Amino acid sequence: MEAIILAKMMGPRFKESRRLGLNVCGHPKANKRMTKGTARSDKKLTEYGKQLLEKQRLRAYYGVLEKQFVNLFKEAKKAPEQTGTALVQFLEMRLDNLAYRMGFANSIRQARQLVSHGHVHVNGKKLNIPSYRCKPGDVISLSPRGMKSAIFKENFETNFVTSYPYISKDKNFKATLTSVPGREDIPIEIEDQLIVEFYSKNM
Fold it and tell me: What are the Small ribosomal subunit protein uS4 N-terminal domain coordinates in residue numbering (predicted)?
């Protein structure tokens, strides 16, 4: 199932980053290609257009399909937090995203492949479901086979200095999700309320 989802998400990510006005591929060059006047976010949009664009931006950033996104939104509506905040938190705590934040991969897409191929362990056990939602206290690590990969080791060592308040890194190729991410600590510029407004009118 995840392999099918991954295949459907394939596409020219630099072009998509420019169209959405958001780096959705994690590559530094994408920022340079998002020149002013080329992104839809730079153009005049109706209120509906702004809401739709913001939904597309968040969905593309985390690499999830519409059905997954809608299901998460429905769950977020039932959460005690504000709906937009809960939605972003749920996405941020996906295993593929955390593998990226922890430095095992250079993009969420690469992290998704890493998880799908069984190179990531959660609490010492292999878990190959990219959409798995981690919980505070979960320890995420490279598998023994993953630790033999020069690429994965280099990724982790290079990205070790990048820190997030909700992640504690260990130099032994592991990291812990210490708490539910605060919305202000999640490094993505999205107007959550526009997404809430979009679905309140289109569900």
Answer: 8-92
Domain 92-183, classified CATH 3.30.70.2860, yes or no:
no
In angstroms, what is the C-alpha Rg of the chain? 17
Would you write out the chain's pLDDT as a tens digit for each of its 203 residues? 433 433 444 445 555 555 566 656 555 554 455 554 445 555 688 999 999 999 999 999 999 999 999 999 999 999 999 999 999 999 999 999 999 999 999 889 899 999 999 999 999 999 999 999 999 999 999 999 888 888 888 888 888 888 999 999 998 899 999 999 999 999 998 999 999 999 998 87
Per the structure block, which two tokens stand in for 43? 């153009």
- Classify burial at 70, counting beta carbons within 10 Å of its beta carbon; exposed 0-12, middle 13-18, buried 19 or more: middle
In Å, what is the CA distance from 109 to each residue of 141, 178, 197? 18, 23, 28
Residue with tokens 């429905």: 74
Topology of domain 13-91+188-201, per CATH?
Ribosomal Protein S4 Delta 41; Chain A, domain 1 (1.10.1050)
Asked if residues 122 and 115 have their Cβ atoms less than 8 Å apart, the reply is: no
